[in-house]
Amino acid sequence: MKILCLGAAGKISRESAYDLVEYSDFEKITIADYNEDEGLEVVKWLDDPRVDFLKIDVNDHQPAVVSIKDYDLVMDGTTISLNDRSTACIAAAGVHGINLNGCGAEWEFDRQFSDNGKVCIPGMGMTPGITNLMTKHAADQLETVDTIRISHGAFRPVAFSPAIAETTRVEYDPDLPSRVVYENGKFIQVPPFARPREIELPSPFGTHTQYIIPHAETMTLPKSLADKQIQLIEVRGTWPPKNMVLIRTLYDWGFMRNDKIEVDGTQVRILDAIAGYLLQSKEGQTTDLYGYALHVEVTGSREGKKYRHILTHTHPASDGSAKGWEKLRAYTRCVGIPMSIGAQMIAHGQVRGSGVMAPELAFEPSAVFTELAERGIIIHKKIEYTAAYGA
Q1: Do residues 173 and 318 share a domain?
Q2: How many helices (H) and strands (E) does the chain have?
Q3: Domain for residue 278, yes or no?
Q4: Phi, psi of 5 (to 5 degrees)
Q5: Could you tell me if 164 and 118 lie in one domain?
Q6: pLDDT (tens digit, 9 = 90+) per residue, 157-169?
């Protein structure tokens, strides 16, 4: 089979391609990006005869569709703002697709993928993605589910790439309608920095105050686990403390609105200017601790008793003691590897059905956990008995 790695000149999705080279049996692995120089650098870095480069721009729909038709599967690592166009190209080409973000317009193409007998799985990164599967694993052991609280710590520089700078902006956009919680059968919109909660992440990351963020898990899990009678779903996240202080200050002072201002007779958007600075500064490109930490808490009942399931994950250290996991790569590999695993499972026929599918419906959690463990990413599980039901 042949796979097209869309947007793989980026620092995260190139790690997905790296994992394909290390673990997959694809006959052809094409790095596809509009940035030819960076794309060719990735080809050189991967150093595998199966890997080549194709310049592609999903904004130019028809040529992109023609190129994609030559492949069996697209692993889409483009940014959130491009996912509507990238998914439209993949659907029109009539091939399988999988992406990292899961927060775009992918669901609008369900009929098209279904009619072609293909699957599209949005949001197969760490979160969304692995968090969905951790939740499903816990929920499968319960008859009813009361609460689902998903949290993560993304320990990376605030703007190590344009895509990450964009994600930062989107998640704390004051007017973002998709920042919601699911409560008593309804989606409730909340502002930035809503519902603070102290979350203890695995070592070495520690305990941090986390706030509600806009993530696909909130939207897909009520449907995927509809038989569990879920009362509450909250998804929270944090970045390094310095990042959070910066974002809070930008929000409090109105910078997150990205208003137009005039500087020496030239109009610019203030947040665009700040993002440009961060992308070019040491402060925007470095952080003290690198890596990723997940924390999923699911409460519910089974056989008349109440339980709390807590799942976390760990990965090789970023301090140089584990080759290939140094500094930023401890973060980017964590995010990129799940999409590669998902792509390989699609290729091997381990996903049943067609159309657009959430990760928790597409994949068997334990099978994905086993693949993660082979790469040094370990899912930890703890079950606590809390009370007799009704007590």
Answers
A1: yes
A2: 14, 18
A3: yes
A4: -100, 90
A5: no
A6: 998 888 777 777 7
Helix 36-46 vs helix 13-23: crossing angle, to nearest 10: 30
For residue 312, with 0-12 CB atoms within 10 Å meaning exposed, 13-18 middle and 19 or more buried, which class applies? buried
CA dist 200 → 86, 87, 128, 153, 205 (Å): 37, 36, 19, 10, 8
Structural domains in the chain (count): 2
The last residue of one of the domains, among 122, 154, 177, is 122
Task: Give the bridge partners for 155, in sequence order.
Answer: 291
Q: How many angstroms separate the CA atoms of 83 and 77, rounded?
A: 9
Cβ atoms within 10 Å, residue 248: 15
From 153, 209, 211, select the one nearest 181 (Cα to Cα). Answer: 211
Supply 264's token pair: 């020496």
pLDDT at 344: 98
Among candidate residues 328, 332, 337, the one with its CA nearest the CA of residue 375: 337
Within this chain, do residues 171 and 253 fall inside the same structural domain, yes or no? yes
Residue 187's DSSP bridge partners are: 182
Q: For strands 197-201 and 206-212, give the pairing.
A: antiparallel
**pTM of the shown model:** 0.94
Q: What is the pLDDT of residue 391?
A: 54
Amino acid in position 170: V
Q: Select from 122, 157, 176 the last residue of a domain.
A: 122
